[in-house]
Amino acid sequence: MRNFDLTPLYRASVGFDRLADVVDRAMTADVAAPTYPPYNIEKTGEDSYRISIAVAGFSADDLSVEMRDGAVIVSARKAEEDESRSYLHRGIATRAFERKFTLADHVRVEGASHSDGMLHIELLREVPEALKPRRIEIAKATPKVEKLDA
């Protein structure tokens, strides 16, 4: 894998530290990143998104969704299993996990719901008025009248 030096980005820009950190994290990410549990990220509107995570075998009480340091952290801990059960085949994984999704600036969690073995996290991007594009009115200049010396 290639290594990229992001030092010039830090030297020549102000306020992009978080972007550089995200790029740096993506470049140094482990190739064998965890794939459990599977998830989808979808765009549901102009400024709205949804993260859907397959959490079969977990109840809503076993799941935790938390916002911390500009990221959504989803974790699950299964309550103690009933030892009296004897499985011939166990294909539904209910092992503990933690997934972290880094959010862009001005993206916040609207809510979360759990149904049919899926955890849905609704996200909304709210751009502040100060950052939205706005049209600047251009004032017309009045012509200057020069006095002629007589």
UniProtKB/TrEMBL annotation:
PROSITE patterns: SHSP. It comes from the Bacteria. Residues 30-141 form the SHSP domain. Keywords: Stress response. Belongs to the small heat shock protein (HSP20) family. This is Hsp20 family protein. It comes from Paracoccus onchidii.
